[in-house]
Amino acid sequence: MVIVALKIADVNTVFGFFPKRNVDCSLERLISLIERYRISKVLTASLKAVFYDYVEGNEETLKSCSVDSRLIPVAAVDPRAYLGELEEIEELKKRGFKAVRLFMEFQSYPLDYAPLLKLFKNLESMDLPLLVYNTGYGLMTKIARETKGRGYPVVMLGCSYDAISEFIVLSSENPHLYIETSLLDTPDAFELLIRKAGSTRIIFGSGIPLTYFESSYLMVEKADIPEGDKERILYYNLESILKGSL
Amino acid sequence: MNIPIIDAHAHYGKWFFPIYADSIRSIKNLMRRFNIKAAVCSSSKAIVYDFIEGNRELFQSLDPSSGIYGYVTVNPNYLELSKDEIERYLELPEFRGVKFHTAYSGVPIDSKEFKYLVEYAEPYDKPFLLHTYSQRDVKDVEDLAKRFGGIKFIMGHMGGTETSWTGKNWKLAISVASEYSNIYLEMCMTRLEAGKIEEAVEKVGSQRILYGSDMTLLNPAHTIGMIMSSEINREEKERIFYVNAKGLFKI
What we know:
The complex is a heterodimer of chains A (246) and B (251).
Chain A: E1 9-15, H1 27-36, E2 41-46, H2 48-51, H3 54-66, E3 71-76, H4 86-94, E4 99-102, H5 104-107, H6 114-122, E5 130-133, H7 139-147, E6 154-157, H8 164-171, E7 177-180, H9 189-196, E8 202-203, H10 213-221, H11 227-241
Parallel strand pairs in A: 1-2, 2-3, 3-4, 4-5, 5-6, 6-7, 7-8
Chain B: E1 5-12, H1 24-33, E2 36-43, H2 44-48, H3 51-61, E3 68-73, H4 79-89, E4 95-100, H5 102-105, H6 112-121, E5 128-131, H7 135-147, E6 153-156, H8 168-177, E7 183-186, H9 196-204, E8 209-210, H10 220-229, H11 234-249
Parallel strand pairs in B: 1-2, 2-3, 3-4, 4-5, 5-6, 6-7, 7-8
Helix pairs in contact in B: 4-6, 7-8, 8-9
């Protein structure tokens, strides 16, 4: 096991029941991984909100996070059931959610979809980061276009070798766009991204408990980049977009 | 990381993505950084474009004294030329196996052309690394393993993953490998789903699982981290990282 020496905040975790295969995603499992790797904070959402009912799942997220200060609540919004009401999003913020996450990778709706476009608009005055999993070529380009100038940061999760050029090209014109690290798996991804987009645009995420934590962590820890950049990626960039809410 | 590593799935050459760590010097740097004592590489050019030019460039770059060995890549669309490549390289000590990528060549593992090449290479007694990224690929390897019991086949990517998040491909790969002692599993891929190493060790045994990085496309840290995180014991990790490949490739 890697001995984690740096302070870590993880933008990409979930908990609950995973119906697609037999894997332990329970809250207890998530907490055991947080303890094993000494992770300071995790942004997390209930899988009930992903696979069943997002309102009920968000309640579970709030309840679970209220008893452990390392867990930061993320609201899932499922556009297939969202009626476009601004008040609903305002209520999420009032109740303490620190970010909103889309689960397009599991819910399979298109980007050009009225409830989703309404959500992008309704998030304008909320100042909550939006987390989106990258599902293929072009999605990030469209997300950047639809969220540009709306005043909230967007973190693209699950970006691999096929998304690096897209992010670099978008980064200069879209200062609200950030890239998450869990699948940044080319040998020089961090070195290149820092050179082209800057270390402040990269945010650590692992995908636990659906994945192996050290896969994500080692890529940062072993990158040929200054220690200060590692610290920013592993913790302070997320703290910055949450405006000190960590 | 103090466990030495042999990388059973590495590449030399460029990819059509923004990756600049693709030279032999970069490979040596990565090997030093991650304690990789040997890497068996195929040419990316040979896989995605011209296998003859790619094999030649790879041969010129191999350096066994630094632990850099090769796979000769075949393309069954060019049967006679593939035979020539096998003859030219496979008996050389620098080359430790044969690489075949079904997706880039468009030829299924189960094709009569590829089976012909397997038969042709059989006397050299070196393993085949096969790209597997679907249930069909896995079933095709099963058929090969049944027919060519004396040849060792490595399922590259362990069947792969797919967008359904079900793990069906790698679960099938584990199931097939558990039945055939001449099938090895190699597990590199982008999305590393929790539990698969533990399941592979439980059902296949740690003796037929190999570490692979997929460098220069992927970062060795990604797969190393998966094995380090997995809930198996140190002896099993040592076999996966080093011992199994040392025996298989006779390094």
